[in-house]
Amino acid sequence: MPFLLTLLAPLGFGSGQVDPDAVVAFNSDNPGLLTAWNTTIYIVNALALAVLVVALSRMQSQTPDWAAVSQALGLIWAALVLGAGMIANVALERAAVLAPTDAETAAEIWFTLHAVELGLGGGNEIAGGAWIGCVSLAGLLGHSLNMVTVGLGLVTSAGGLATLVPSLGDTAGVVFGLGAIAWFLAVGLSLFVKQAKS
Fold first, then answer.
1. Residues in the chain with pLDDT < 70?
2. What's residue 3's pLDDT?
3. Please, is 184 exposed, middle or buried when counting C-beta atoms within 10 Å of its C-beta (0-12, 13-18, 19+)?
4. Of 134, 115, 126, 117, which is closest to residue 176 (Cα–Cα)?
5. 47 with 15, same domain?
6. Domain shared by 26 and 119, yes or no
7. Cα 65 from Cα 24, distance rounded (Å)
8. Which helix (H) or strand (E) is 49 found in, with range?
9. Strand blocks (E) in 21-171
10. Using CA atoms, how far apart are residues 160 and 76, in angstroms rounded to an integer?
11. 6: helix, strand or coil
C-alpha cells in the first residue's frame, strides 16, 4: 500500500488521470519496478486465485451446480487478471524500448495498452463481482460459509458489479477492493477452520 500511495498515486494511478508521459519517465528511471508491481498484483494474484477457486469449488459439495458455475466464473476471472498483468508488463516493456528515442510514441503505446489492461480487469470488477457473489450464494445455500462471510461477499459482489455503471465506478471499485480483501481473509479463515476440523 505505501508503494501505491507514495510512488504510483503521483503518476495518477488510482484515479482517472494517469499521466502516460510521467509513467513512461518513471519506468525509464526505475526499470523493473512497475513490472514487479504488475507481476505481484496481477500475475501472482491470478495464479493464487486459480488455486482458491478450485479449493472453494470442492468446499461446495452441498451445492454441486453452484460449485460448477462458481468455478467457471472464478477461472474466467483468474484468466482475465492474468491477461491484464501480461498486457501491463508488455506495455511497460514496449514503452521502455521506445522511450530513449521517441518518448511521445512510447507514452501513446503505453496509454493504449493500459486501456486494454483496464478493460480486462484493472478498471472494472465485473468478473470478480460475479464470482464472489456466486461463491457467497453457494456458501449460503450449502451452509459452507458463515453468515458474516456471505454478507461480506454479497456486498463486495454488488460493488464489483456496480463498476459497470460509469458514475459509480470509482466508489464501487473502492467497495469491491476493500470488501474483497476482507472477504478473502474471511474465506481463508473458513478454509482453515474446516481443515482443522477434518
1. 1-5, 14-15, 122, 198
2. 58
3. middle
4. 126
5. yes
6. yes
7. 47
8. helix 45-59
9. none
10. 15
11. helix
Q: What length does the chain have?
A: 198
Cell of residue 173, nine digits: 471499485
Give the domain extent around 144: 125-198
* 56 and 146 housed in the same domain: no
Q: 117 and 130: one domain?
A: no
User: What is the Cα–Cα distance from 190 to 73, expressed in whole angstroms?
Assistant: 21
- Co-location of 6 and 73 in the same domain: yes
Q: How far apart are CA 102 and CA 4, in angstroms?
A: 27
pLDDT in tens, 80-134: 999 999 999 999 999 999 999 999 999 999 999 999 998 898 678 999 999 999 9
Q: Cell numbers 463486495 label which residue?
A: 156
Choose one of 123, 150, 177: the last residue of a domain.
Answer: 123
Q: Are 20 and 114 in contact (CB under 8 A)?
A: yes
Same domain, 95 and 192: no
